[in-house]
From TrEMBL:
Keywords: Cell membrane, Membrane, Transmembrane, Transmembrane helix, Transport. This is Carbohydrate ABC transporter permease. It is found in: Cell membrane. The chain crosses the membrane at residues 20-44, 88-109, 116-141, 153-169, 206-228, 248-271. It comes from the Bacteria. PROSITE patterns: ABC_TM1. Residues 84-271 form the ABC transmembrane type-1 domain. InterPro entries: MetI-like (IPR000515), MetI-like_sf (IPR035906). Its main location: membrane. One of its GO terms (biological process) is transmembrane transport. SUPFAM superfamilies: MetI-like. Coiled coil: none annotated.
């Protein structure tokens, strides 16, 4: 079956057709690359300008003098190592709790098929229609009654109830080949052994996507950590950047934002293969 394109195969076979094709293709790639990378360049170089230059109108594209002191001052004055570590602890704990409980719940709903499983799944999906802001006050009162304020558990436990990731995992488990699971059952594997030895290894793409969703959600969250962490020393980086921004030079604040974004950018670059593989997670053939 032939695929219709803007240029026919005969046109691409001619030198002029190839030249037009590669010119348009290269120009489009460069345009999109510039559109996505220019804001990153502007933020990184903005931290290297002087305080007067960064607010100058019209702005300078390249710093007149390169100052690295903005990054060092941000690292020291805003106590970034401590707040980054707080964020890592909170994000890692939320990820672990969510992976364990969402995977177990999705596996139970998909393969164990409990009584009223569809009703339970419907109730879980119904929570997606409730605005997140409407749940803030009940969650805060619950956490306060349990004495978990200024405790990482205040971040970890609410993160477990993620209906979207649970449904994503269940849909993937539904598409797993039944003959593989039946073969494991014939060999004497129990439900838990099948989950650990068969289902989880086959689910690495979707687990990678769910992991990224879980980590990014905690890393960029602001309102909930602001409410549950009144102790400045225990606040994550998203809250600390706002709380400590008073009386801080703009270049130092920009540098702090650049440093705070590095872990998420690095994680995307490392796990981009899993993200792409997880896009087709629902197309697993039985």
């Amino acid at each position: 079956m032939s695929t219709r394109t803007l240029l026919s195969p005969a046109a691409l076979a001619r030198p002029r057709g190839r030249a037009v094709y590669w010119s348009v293709f290269t120009g489009t790639v460069l345009l999109f690359t510039l559109a996505f990378l220019f804001p990153v360049y502007w933020m990184v170089t903005g931290a290297m300008k002087s305080p007067d230059e960064v607010v100058r109108t019209p702005p300078t594209l390249v710093p007149e003098q390169w100052h690295l002191s903005g990054y060092t001052d941000a690292w020291d004055l805003m106590q970034l190592p401590s707040h980054l570590w707080n964020t890592v602890v909170q994000a890692a704990g939320a990820w672990l709790f969510q992976i364990v409980f969402c995977t177990a719940a999705a596996y139970a709903l998909s393969k164990l098929r409990p009584v009223f499983g569809n009703v339970v799944l419907g109730g879980i999906l119904a929570t997606l229609m409730v605005p997140a802001q409407a749940l803030v006050v009940p969650k805060y009162l619950t956490v306060a009654d349990l004495g978990l304020l200024n405790d990482p558990l205040a971040i970890w436990l609410p993160a477990v109830a993620n209906a979207f990731n649970l449904y994503l995992l269940k849909r993937f488990f539904d598409q797993l080949p039944r003959d593989v699971l039946e073969a494991a059952e014939i060999d004497g594997a129990g439900k838990l052994r099948t989950l650990w030895s068969i289902v989880l290894p086959m689910s690495r793409p979707v687990l990678g996507v769910v992991s990224i969703f879980a980590l990014v959600a905690v890393w960029q969250d602001f309102l909930w950590p602001l409410m549950v962490f009144s102790d400045t020393d225990k606040q994550p980086i998203s809250v600390a950047l706002v709380q400590l921004s008073q009386n801080i030079q703009l270049t130092v604040l920009i540098a702090a934002m650049v440093i705070a974004s590095i872990p998420m950018v690095a994680m995307f670059l490392v796990f981009q293969r899993h993200i792409i593989a997880g896009i087709g997670a629902g197309s697993t053939k039985g």
